[in-house]
Amino acid sequence: MFTTVALTTSQIVVQVCLFLVAAIAIFGGSLQFYLGQPDTSPRLDNVHRFMAGVYLSTGIICLWAALTIRQQGFLVYLLALGVLLAGVGRLVSISKVGLPEPAAVWLGYLIPELLIPFIMAGAHYAGS
Questions:
Q1: How many CB atoms within 10 Å of residue 32?
Q2: Which of 69, 84, 82, 58 is nearest to 123 (CA)?
Q3: Which whole-number Å values give the CA distances from 88 to 9, 72, 84, 92, 94, in the listed order?
Q4: Sequence-distant (≥ 6) Cβ neighbours of residue 119 within 8 angstroms
Q5: Strand, helix or coil for residue 11
Q6: Tens digit of pLDDT per residue, the chain (128 long)?
Q7: Rounded to whole angstroms, how far apart are CA atoms 57 and 59?
Q8: Nearest to 25 by CA among 81, 86, 71
Q9: Alpha carbon 127 to chain centroid, angstroms
C-alpha cells in the first residue's frame, strides 16, 4: 500500500502559481499560434508565431512542474525568472510605444507577471 505525504503549504502555493502560469501560457500560446500577427509583414507574423510556440511550450513545462512539484528544485526559480522577464518585456514595450487599449486588460496581464514570480520563488525558497 502506498501512502502519500501531503504537500506543504509552500508547495501548494508554488503549485497554484505554476498552474496559473501554465493555464495562461497554454491558452495564450495556442491562441497566438492560431491567430498570428494580423495586418503585418510575413517576417513579423513568423516571429510572432515562433514566440507563441515558445509561450505554449513554457506553459506545458509549467504544467509538468506543477504536477511534479515534490521533485522540483531550481526549475521553479527559472520559470519564475521567465515570467518576470516577460513582465519586464511588457514594461519596456509600454515605455517605448505606450499602453495598449483597453488599458485595464493589459495592466491585468502586467501586474500578475510582476507579482507571481516573487510569490512563487519566495514560497519555493520557504519550503526548501
A1: 17
A2: 69
A3: 28, 25, 6, 6, 10
A4: 13, 17
A5: helix
A6: 666 889 999 999 999 999 999 999 999 999 999 998 888 899 999 999 999 999 999 999 999 999 999 999 999 999 999 999 999 999 999 999 999 999 999 999 899 999 999 999 999 999 98
A7: 5
A8: 86
A9: 21
C-alpha cell at 33: 499560434
In the three-class reduction of DSSP (H, G, I as helix; E, B as strand; rest coil), residue 12 is classed as: helix
Cell of 106: 493589459
Q: Which amino acid is at 3?
A: T
- Confidence at residue 72, expressed as pLDDT on a 0 to 100 scale: 95
Grid coordinates of 50: 515562433
DSSP string, 52-117: HHHHHHHHHHHHHHHHTGGG-SHHHHHHHHHHHHHHHHHHHHHHHH-PPSSHHHHHHHHHHHHHHH
